[in-house]
Amino acid sequence: MRPRHWGSLLCVLTATVAVLSAPAAAQPAARPVAPKASTVALANAPEVAPGAREVPAREEFSLAGLSWRGAAPDTVSVRWRSTAGGWSDWRAVSRQESGRDGAPAPSTTEPIWTGPADRLQVRAERGGAPVTAELSAVLVDPGTSPADAMVAQATGVPSMPAVVTRAQWGADESLMTWTPEYAPTVKAVTLHHTDNSNDYTCDQSAELVRGIYYYHAVTNGWGDIGYNALVDKCGTVFEGRAGGLNLPTIGAHAGGFNTSTFGISMLGTYTTVAPTEATLDAVARLTAWKLGNGYTDPSGSTTLVSRGGGTSKYPAGTEVTLPTVFGHRDVGATECPGDAGYAQLPALRTRATELAGDWRSSPVHQKWVAVGTAAAGPVYAVEADWPGGGRATTFGAGGSTIAWRSDLGAYWVRGAIHGTFTALGGPSLFGYPTTDERGTPDGVGRYNHFSENASIYFTADTGAHGILGPIRDKWAARGWETGLGYPRTDQKATPDGVGRYNHFTGNSSIYWTADTGAQAVQGAIRDTWSALGWETSPLAYPTTDERATPDGAGRYNHFNGSGGGSIYWTPGTGAHAIYGAIRARWSALGWEAGPLGYPTTNELVTPDGVGRYNHFNGSGGGSVYWSPGTGAHAIYGVIRSHWASLGWETSWLGYPTSDEYGVAGGRRSDFQGGYIVFSFATGKATAYRY
């Protein structure tokens, strides 16, 4: 009796590999047809010969397998009738030998590629007697994909093999119910064969992969394809397991040893027939890319710990030392990848080692060693090209990155700073790191600088936040964290889309627009601007940093609101906003050095709703009142006090129509309904009607 050979599974390639491109003259893509399957109980199939049952298909199929309840049959063999009318030879079918770590192997055979067929005959025995009652045939139509006619055109290079992606080979992602899971790193490559017919043509390879995907995801109940990647006899590489070929994605290709291994399966059966040179070359290139860029010697060895399940040779918890490129049979009770396939492993290791090159000389690898492999953690994503001509690798379950560019060197980004770097777009926003993580001079924070005039600063209280471009320049000019404090937001766009800003711990912010540049607003002035609505207020964006007034008593920022705007502050008055026509009048009178002094209110609406005003702290008090009919005019001292005593603008005088001006023996202000005169001789003010 043929030794049991319970399966190989399919592989997945990574986000960093080259993908298949359509020919220049490609026609519009045909609409894809999703895979579908039917299940037929053998007990309902007629017996066509002693011990043989024939399953008539309701629809054409191209892949078939058997499932059962209870004890597995000892042997299963099948043959099929092609849609052209000819019958195949009888072929032994192996039990599915793989699955998730720690879980039993499914009660199924390996899927068998039949090509377009309409009849399946099955022989199954247990204990030398035919068995049919518990068996069912699964017949899969793999559907169609726009990439089917293009698959054989894929090519590869040693460092980055070309890959037919899941989307290109037509993976129906609605079948994928196994959320990707990740190991800490990849330590080894496991070689499989799919134990399928070798009679497929290369333009049928995508169909075969779709069929295996359906069988693994649905029939086996795995929720996805088991292998990380698959290679056909023409050397075409197919992405298998979802989750990223550049990452340590856990598959279901070698039960008990799926974690930290990358499963590559050759499409076909290689028990007596050796894999094609094209297949072996593609497997070697894929192995070299995965292991070499993951700083693992393809000719070395590694120690793995069995997690049990499947048909693992080793109980859970057993440490096993293996070559870094090994066959499925080394860890499972299986013939996989076939005697002829297994015999190629020494040559495969040698070729992969040659293709991997001198990966130890990689500046990223050398930096990893320099910072401490234990500190950075194991390789998570393989080393890959980065935008801008450099290289990078992710370590420690994606928690840190070392990036290198020839003009900058290699630097390490980690921890919370790395989290912000990744979340905000990584190199596309920040560029390359130009420092390792450093401590701030005050000992409170940590930071990395980056090549795109960018930094990320971290403290335990603020977390890690990015600051870039002109805002970073302004923050640096103000003394970094010793000036405005640490950033407590990432750089953000303003709601109107015109500006950018960061907030800082020192009750401060920097706002930038193309017209105003980057300006700092802080303290009480910032609080007032915030209360008025930030840049959506009448003040709009700051056009200056906070400055000291000439008399040294106050502080101010100017803004670019319509007609201009400012916020002025003194310890005695607090911070108040003044803008538009009222600000223009105050400016004409000499700002805070004029008779009005500093504002003591923001601009306010008069009780009648017609006008607007600010009060000031000049000697005897001062105000500027504005209405559409009168414009803005200043009133202060005794005249202002007398106008106030009569009821301000609600009195018979109404709004002022002039600033205070000199007359014989005194001062005068004009109003809509009359005027007020102040006498030097009496020290009193008197109101008169026109």
Detailed description of the structure:
With 690 residues, the chain is α+β, with helices and mostly antiparallel strands. 17% of the residues lie in helices and 31% in strands. Strands 2, 3, 4, 5, 6, 7, 8 and 9 form an 8-stranded antiparallel beta sheet that branches. A 5-stranded mixed beta sheet has the order 13-12-14-11-17, with helices on one face. A 4-stranded antiparallel beta sheet has the order 18-19-20-21. Helix 3 (277-292) packs across helix 5 (345-356). This is LGFP repeat-containing protein. Keywords: Signal.
Q: Biggest sheet, in brief?
A: 8 strands, antiparallel
What do the pLDDT scores average to? Answer: 90
CATH architectural category of the domain at 163-359: 3-Layer(aba) Sandwich
Shape: elongated
Helix content estimate: 10-25%
Overall radius of gyration: 39 Å
Our count of helices gives: 13
CATH topology assignment of the domain at 163-359? Lysozyme-like
> How many β-strands, per DSSP?
41
Signal peptide: 1-26
Family: Belongs to the N-acetylmuramoyl-L-alanine amidase 2 family.
Pfam family, one: Amidase_2
Protein name: LGFP repeat-containing protein
Short structural summary:
This protein has 690 residues and is α+β, with helices and mostly antiparallel strands. 17% of the residues lie in helices and 31% in strands.
For this entry, give a set of tags.
Jelly Rolls, eight-stranded antiparallel sheet, alpha+beta, 13 helices, five-stranded mixed sheet, zinc ion binding, Lysozyme-like, 690 residues
